[in-house]
Design brief:
13 helices; six-stranded mixed β-sheet; elongated; five-stranded mixed β-sheet; homodimer
Chain lengths: ~400, ~400
């Protein structure tokens, strides 16, 4: 695409970063803010509290960047050396630079104009850095670079239940070479894959046309795996669908041990739809608290369709919820058999007096198997409700054409 | 200290880092591991999925580093370009490099030897990166650089329940200037604070003397907050103490919503001591499944000592476990009152027909409050058992001097 408009570099300073004492969250935050201001970040450096290293990084950054943001090394202790090192590298005197007021801490930020570039120094404490950037740096960059900044547009599709290589291959197959103007990227994690189409430059309308064309091509491929959630979390999608119906949910977990309940309550307001659950780790808990049949446990085994279904139904009835989820599986690292290898998970959803269940053999270690099992169970509930709504919407249209 | 022995650089690769979509936790983890292997990290770079930027970073790193670790950009999709870019920069052919088996994912790591340096490419998925580094990269670096590494010894104390600034001040007060040869560092996270004393250079015996002196000085300060766990996880310590007694545990969670159960089952083998639990998010579940008194719920409120204690006792009895934990609190962001502000948590432990309970007002957001509540409840159980054992050990010595 070539270098249209200003680009940025970020330099994180601090010995505590290089010994791994501190995870650098500032540079991700700054990257996101700069990108959305239309000033893409092209490189980041992390250096210790060393004037030479700081000066080296500044020189390299100024080679190609019109914005250089330093974070850290601005305090009052002797190992805080960023401001003197930057002044030395720029060849300005010890009082030079414009002070940026810090409303939350002792160390103010600093701004320099040099070589057609803006150099900003911010303290390393995340909330102080964010406050100064938001109130003083962002407006300065907008007014300094104006319309030369690169507008960027993105279209994001959340999926779960399909591996990244399979999804990528299928999408690339239906697209052919058609999306030449956009950058296609896949962001996989244990919970699923986000597909993102990004366009830099051009108008919002042109981007929307591209996104519409993209949607038409890929909707068949992503459809069965897709969910809608502004924040990207399937729980948010499930909460939304349950909330629309006024339905409540209870969960029964064996191998996931509480992870599903934790996921459902990670955000506030879960009490609107979530009533609670039973962690039925031991089989006696499955029997005594969920009413799973002792003979089924014996004949089918704890990891079976029948047990998952009885868990889902049992917990909904015991707790008095409209819907129930049951999960039972072999999360490893021990406990696998030839019939039920590690990763075997049965999960079931109870809703409207019906039960649906699926089983999968998930890959990965214990953490991956548990995350994937929870996500698959949530997806089963989500798609069930969404499919029902689509059918109902269709029926309404058929029966009542006055709508 | 000057450049004695090998030093390392880390290059993180990925457009998702530069747009701020992903916080780079890999480079902190790698920095900590390399530092403790005696190979200090002198610089880190973050670049996008661009062969030129990757090659630039490699060239700059090889100027001064004998170890260069890349993370990210090793998958199977077209935007994963690290291996080809590194091969191109090194001038080797497209099959070159030694494959490093990935036990947890699709993309193997790669290792190259060039210009007296070791270059290692690891996938960006944190658990895969950690598995490959631990099993294959660390042993290779140890054997490759042997005694030229800056030998480093460390002594680590795990604590929970005391804030880092308080702990640091108290430890620095009892130490005075006595630990001149060692570097003292504090590693805080939501679950507690690790205190680490590191010595670089010298013999193991000299380090042990220093660590012994350190222990004598700080044991009074850290004692009430300390736990022993080879992996650093308080759950491991709790599992060990319960395991020694042959005792089992059940949990009842309100605001933590399953997080405690998840923590207890994060590692395999939890069925040795953990039987299950009840996620009593809605008050009706506290009544119906745990036997919490409806009148106590009404008069004291759900977030109260009495409810936490009845939850702990109720879940132990219903599930048939020797010990029970109950947690109830206001995790936010809504639900706070003047009496019970956000962060107020009551937690209780039932054991040997007794109940102990505590309450705290935890700081931070919802995630922090929930993590801290779980950790505090586990600590209450752990210290109770440990104190009992100390008393019992003392009695045994007093009664049976033949031991």
């Amino acid at each position: 695409l070539g270098a249209v408009g200003p680009v940025a570099s970020i330099v994180s300073v601090g010995d505590e970063l290089l010994v791994g004492q501190t995870v650098d969250t500032n540079s991700a935050w700054l990257s996101e803010r700069l990108t959305s201001l239309g000033i893409p970040v092209e490189r980041r450096w992390t250096v210790g509290d060393s004037p030479e290293r700081i000066a080296d990084a500044l020189a390299a950054a100024l080679d190609s960047s019109q914005v250089v943001v330093f974070s850290g090394g601005l305090g009052t202790t002797p190992d805080d050396r960023t401001s003197d090192a930057v002044r030395g590298a720029l060849g300005v005197n010890s009082g030079a630079g414009e002070s940026l007021e810090n409303p939350l801490g002792m160390a103010p930020g600093l701004a320099f104009e040099a070589n057609d570039s803006v150099i900003v120094l911010l303290p390393g404490v995340p909330r102080e850095l964010r406050a100064i950037f938001t109130a003083q740096v962002a407006p300065r960059l907008v007014s300094r670079f104006g319309d030369s900044r690169r507008q960027s547009f993105e279209h994001r599709i959340h999926t779960t239940g399909i591996p990244e290589p399979v999804l990528a291959e299928q999408i690339e197959e239906v697209l052919g070479d058609e999306m030449g103007d956009g950058d296609l990227a896949f962001y996989p994690d244990l919970r699923g894959v986000d597909v993102v189409l990004r366009v830099r430059g051009g108008t919002a309308e042109a981007a929307r046309h591209l996104f519409d064309a993209f949607e038409r091509r890929v909707s068949g491929v992503v459809g069965p795996f897709r969910y809608e959630s502004p924040g990207g979390d399937l729980v948010e999608a499930v909460a939304g669908t349950l909330g629309e119906l006024g339905d409540t949910l209870a969960v029964a977990e064996s191998c996931t041990g509480g992870l599903l309940g934790k996921r459902l309550t990670d955000n506030g307001g879960a009490s609107r739809f979530f009533r609670g659950g039973v962690i039925a780790y031991d089989d006696s808990v499955k029997r005594d608290l969920l009413g799973v049949s002792a003979s089924v446990l014996q004949t089918e085994g704890a990891v079976s369709r029948a047990v998952a279904e009885q868990m889902a139904r049992g917990v909904a009835l015991r707790i008095g919820a409209d819907a129930g989820i049951g999960i039972t599986g072999v999360a490893g690292p021990g406990g696998g058999t030839e019939d039920k290898p590690i990763g075997t998970v049965w999960y079931a959803v109870y809703l409207n007096d019906c039960v649906r269940s699926e089983h999968r053999t998930f890959l990965g270690d214990r953490e991956a198997i548990r995350e994937r099992a929870v996500q698959a169970a949530l997806a089963l509930l989500y798609h069930w409700i969404m499919d029902d709504q689509r059918v109902m919407d269709g029926q309404k249209v058929a029966v009542g054409p006055e709508r």
